[in-house]
Amino acid sequence: MTQSVLLLDGGLGQELIYRSTAAAHHLWSLQVMLDEPQLVSDIHRDFCQAGAAIACLNTYAITRARLTRGGVSTPLDTLLLRACELARQGIEASGKNDVAVVSSLPPLVASYSPDTELPVNQMVSEYEELIALQRPHVDGFLAETIASVNEAIAVLTASKQSDVRIMLGLTVMDEDGRRLRSGESLEDALAAIGAFDPLAVVINCSKPEAVSQAMPLLSKSGFAFGGFANGFTAIDALKPGGVVDVLEARADLGPTAYAAYASNWLDAGATVIGGCCEVGPDHIAALNNLMEQRGIGRARWADLAST
Fold this sequence. Notes:
alpha/beta, TIM Barrel, two-stranded antiparallel ribbon, 12 helices, 11 strands, about 45% helix
């Protein structure tokens, strides 16, 4: 049977840091969107031209907790809509007409830090709000960098109650891809979300080696699955409310090396691949070439939604 694979885009936030002259801070991706919007649309354009089948919105920092912490007064719905407008501008500039607009549903308070989680009921309510505000404007939702079972259940409950199927991105320990950042086992997490119907379950924002470790468990889960890794040496230096420019990029993870990891994920049966932080347009182009070389068919977001 011919394998059909959805190629995601890469790490928008890190690209903004590299392209902007502004100093990074904990809401850097949001501030750049307000001050230098062309950079956001340009990055979406470049990922689309590299072969990505989706444009994941610059909404990772747009949650009530993050905006309150940063003292941002611009209304939540205004920011979400602006992110969507810039993605559509980038898609149009790319000349591609079959790219899906997908919103990021992030950890509501901080990345990699399950100890900062809100109560489950509050998480459900806030995710429902994010879905309701964006649903008329986007093609779908990707919950990414979800670090615990409770966080996964909250975002999946919100999507189920909103009658929307989402892709779920779990982040695992860099030293053990069989455990979430919370320490909970990936096997237990997959069992806990068995009552839901995600479009796919992917491992994201973890080292590619850890993503590879997770593949055997994902392949037995019954879910469509895949991965999009980051290119950091480690994430330990990042504290809640901190800035990702404290993290160091790996020197050994260029486009060719990254594609080699993704090739192993495809061998395991992955049908979703892409990139996270430190994975740029050149990496996505390398994944696109890998798919061409292997004669892999191109899946679209709508294909997942129809299964």
